[in-house]
From TrEMBL, chains A, B:
Aspartyl-tRNA synthetase with relaxed tRNA specificity since it is able to aspartylate not only its cognate tRNA(Asp) but also tRNA(Asn). Reaction proceeds in two steps: L-aspartate is first activated by ATP to form Asp-AMP and then transferred to the acceptor end of tRNA(Asp/Asn). Keywords: Aminoacyl-tRNA synthetase, ATP-binding, Cytoplasm, Ligase, Nucleotide-binding, Protein biosynthesis. It comes from Arcobacter arenosus. One of its GO terms (molecular function) is aspartate-tRNA ligase activity. Residues 197-200 are annotated as: Aspartate. Residues 140-554 form the Aminoacyl-transfer RNA synthetases class-II family profile domain. L-aspartate binds at E173, R219, H446, R488. It is an enzyme of class 6 (ligase). Homodimer. Belongs to the class-II aminoacyl-tRNA synthetase family. Type 1 subfamily. This is Aspartate--tRNA(Asp/Asn) ligase. InterPro entries: Aa-tRNA-synt_II (IPR004364), aa-tRNA-synth_II (IPR006195), aa-tRNA-synth_II/BPL/LPL (IPR045864), Asp-tRNA-ligase_1 (IPR004524), Asp-tRNA-ligase_1_N (IPR047089), Asp/Asn-tRNA-synth_IIb (IPR002312), AspRS_core (IPR047090), GAD-like_sf (IPR004115). It is found in: Cytoplasm. PROSITE patterns: AA_TRNA_LIGASE_II (PS50862). The gene is aspS.
Amino acid sequence: MRTHYCTEVTEKNIDEIVTVAGWVNSRRDHGGIIFIDLRDRGGLVQLVCDPADNKDAWEVADSVRDEFVLIATGKVRARGEGLENPNLITGKIEIVVEKLVIENKSKPMPFELGDEKVNEEIRLRNRFLELRTKRSLDIFKLRSTANIAVRNCLNDLGFLDVETPILTKSTPEGARDYLVPSRVHPGEFYALPQSPQLFKQLLMVSGFDKYFQIAKCFRDEDLRADRQPEFTQIDVEMSFCNQEDVIKVAEKLIHDTFTACGKNVPTTFPRITYKDAMEKYGSDKPDMRFDMAMVDVIDIFANSTNEIFASIAQDKKNNRIKALRCPNGDNLFSKRQMKGFEDYVRKFGAKGLGYFQMKEDGLKGPLTKFFSEEDLEAIVKTTELEVGDVVFFGAGDKKTVCDYMGRFRLYLAEQMDIIPADTYEFIWVVDFPMFETEDGKTKALHHPFTMPNLEKCDLNNVEDLEDIESIAYDIVLNGTELGGGSIRIHKEEIQEKVFELMGISQEEANEKFGFLLEALRYGAPSHGGFALGFDRMIMLLAGTDSIRDVIAFPKTQRAQCLLTQAPSEVDNDQLKELALRVRKTEI
Amino acid sequence: MRTHYCTEVTEKNIDEIVTVAGWVNSRRDHGGIIFIDLRDRGGLVQLVCDPADNKDAWEVADSVRDEFVLIATGKVRARGEGLENPNLITGKIEIVVEKLVIENKSKPMPFELGDEKVNEEIRLRNRFLELRTKRSLDIFKLRSTANIAVRNCLNDLGFLDVETPILTKSTPEGARDYLVPSRVHPGEFYALPQSPQLFKQLLMVSGFDKYFQIAKCFRDEDLRADRQPEFTQIDVEMSFCNQEDVIKVAEKLIHDTFTACGKNVPTTFPRITYKDAMEKYGSDKPDMRFDMAMVDVIDIFANSTNEIFASIAQDKKNNRIKALRCPNGDNLFSKRQMKGFEDYVRKFGAKGLGYFQMKEDGLKGPLTKFFSEEDLEAIVKTTELEVGDVVFFGAGDKKTVCDYMGRFRLYLAEQMDIIPADTYEFIWVVDFPMFETEDGKTKALHHPFTMPNLEKCDLNNVEDLEDIESIAYDIVLNGTELGGGSIRIHKEEIQEKVFELMGISQEEANEKFGFLLEALRYGAPSHGGFALGFDRMIMLLAGTDSIRDVIAFPKTQRAQCLLTQAPSEVDNDQLKELALRVRKTEI
């Protein structure tokens, strides 16, 4: 039908007859001559319909409106002098139309394409129109490019693409499952997978050796801005490997994929232990696009005559006094803003936010009176202060202080506007603790199949569960957790011990993942892997902050598809076939 | 951990120290020396543990059993003369073990790996063990190879890989949907997609131009041997195209994929119209690995003195008398077998099965008496009989005769053992009718978005709905429908007309696919595409006849996963959250 995509028509085609097809992006009438910017997937080309050249084509052109679909045949010519458009690939030429066919008409657009201020509901209800914008098209081209790059990288490394079931049994990811009633087995349900975790481990027991999948996963969670009921993850598992082997694969994968998407990233990424990340950045996903690490000054504050500081400094195991240097802060921020910073950290449990200003003649500020000259000097030295800087302090229990000072670090960097755009700073966070205790209940920080670091602890002789390190690692990009993984437990006796430590009974374990435990009894190799959030990766590559932008047909935060009106009610007959009844009282 | 995969160790490594890892495939003790065949994904390598060489390694070797996981380090040496094994890639060498570590133990296998006579239930319950067999591993390597080949082919052709939703609304494929209750919207349900049909058409309206996806699809059907509740299809759609464009893409895709899997197939495939396929092969998926086309002899039989034949021959529009030549049949089959053939066709509605034998002196058989010499000669000529052949006849109404004679053709070919193995014969079936009438109800043969062939008919002036041809095409491989597609309706007025002809009200149409109809109003380009059954393609490539062989974790014909025990009962709390109650009476 067409001979060229719009943007394939260039100066090389001058004097050729070409046929292009696409949408009317805009139409202008200049002194009786009609100019149409025709748009296809690649971009725009200008059509010219001059009644003096071709009356028929001009008459068709006169009747078209925005977003009509046209097929145009004509001769390519150079644009007149001064009429070139350097912003267009095709800006040096135009097509003098000899034949113009309206392939289809269009109603007027319900909103202006590309106007992001339009209510999101309207855009989602007409998602097929929003997808016409260059911004959307570019995102889905990027997503497709990343997808094939991931696959070719892993395929070249010998990984087998294996599909695991969507209709399956609950996986132990901890979130709520989506259920699917069975018609053949009334009263029974499948669950949609939260990840292929158990299946990929089974494939290792099967000797597949290297597995990958770009897998759909499902979580029926209360939705936050960056969550969707269904999402996509790059899922990888390999056998006879250690953490180093897995990290090497992940780094190559990320490097190759980002490179394919035109981004420059290194071939290996720095690492930080979980402990260091929490102490220095107050987060297990530190944003490394800027430095501003926190420094511990509890030893100096121990000498303070301020009773609160002194008392906090007495318990160095459980408390922290963190200093955060803000370069040039004394010049950047007003007193009012400083007060605002205190309000900010209070939201996250801070009792206050102390600070010193670094003046020409040393540290100033209300707190200086509690410190000796030597200690003030020690603070300057430890936090590497320069004239004009401000240094902030958070003091209190370790968890709270690290958390709010970590958040404050990010907040401050935003206020200072020092976070570089279009930069990709990766960091591995390693040596995660095996367990975390929340509301008195011990649970696995990753999942219960994560291998504890047996070189550093004896599972039969554990003092504090939280001291057990696991062989687990997260990859963090620009302060966002892109993914992570672990070496898994491949021996039944270790797995049983871990369940025991978590207070999971043999019975509960068998019921939840009996088939994995059974598989471990039949010659499981050592194995490990990782998963990367594909949607999130595309978000970061595309520089957008909404996951809905990178999903072709996304759901709202109320888990609805406004375009198709899913979910919706179904016939009673359908429910009857499934042996189900809706509890009306609860609707 | 390892330096080589088992099968990477060859004569080139003689005298090198290597480390391999894998499973004990077998273990033999020859005069105190232990030989272990170690297996990994690639295959086997022989380990030798001689107590005279290394007592420690020998002692470990002495304790291992089948399917234990080992890591072995040792020096490669040539096998002794006469001890080479030409069946193994590594058959010329062995590894003299210096260090042997048991990575994991194994219980005895619950069944002999690779024994296909073992009850399928036991194999499926232990699917992770069955997947260890060479046969399974080879299938999943093939599947992974085909998968990446498909993607690279389509990516190179400019198709964008776009993921469409799994949690969506009913699609109009006609089978039963799997439903997913919504927790956020009690009493409402998502449906799992039977195909991405509507979404891929929407993407064309969005101007994506070329889309593909290897998509999971779901149908809650009563399961036949070759069906699964979830299956995978290669899904393709393109804009501004005609049937020729689409067929070209499909042919290149199939050619590239089969080539990547080591199969020789042509770059274009022959075509047959639906009408011809039905008349000649009695099927819209003719097996072209052998010829044996049916020939119509109704004109000759019209002269017969047999009343039944003569009366059937009076209605040439609705009746058929089909001749099927069986080369050398007179020598191949006994009278008893011929009787068996009649019993076979009777199962499919035949009243009988006439035949002639071609002897040296002309046609013989009980029916000859009803025909003149000239007519007998005409039969010989029309059906191209040679001495020793048998020719069978089916007579009656068109649909019944074509159906049972088509089945008989396949049955006969199997009895004659003339279907060549490892041959791939493709054929396009084109010019499908738009509608079919079943039980008095008109329905779309493909789906209601298929474009009627407007060059051949006027929708406003239709005499017989079944005469309307659609621009739809199926690709058939070895008598199996591999997939198909169509050019879609892109204009609202045609779509409305088609619904009208099908007796679908505006209201019903709007409720079912209102969003697609709405999209057609906003500048839809002409478009079309196809879908190929990926599981089925792998079945044919792997030469297996069970779809369960090519799915890593398949379900039974009762839609159960015997490994994970899905589906299963769920907590009442979960149901309560979903505002559902199980109707106990119906279980």
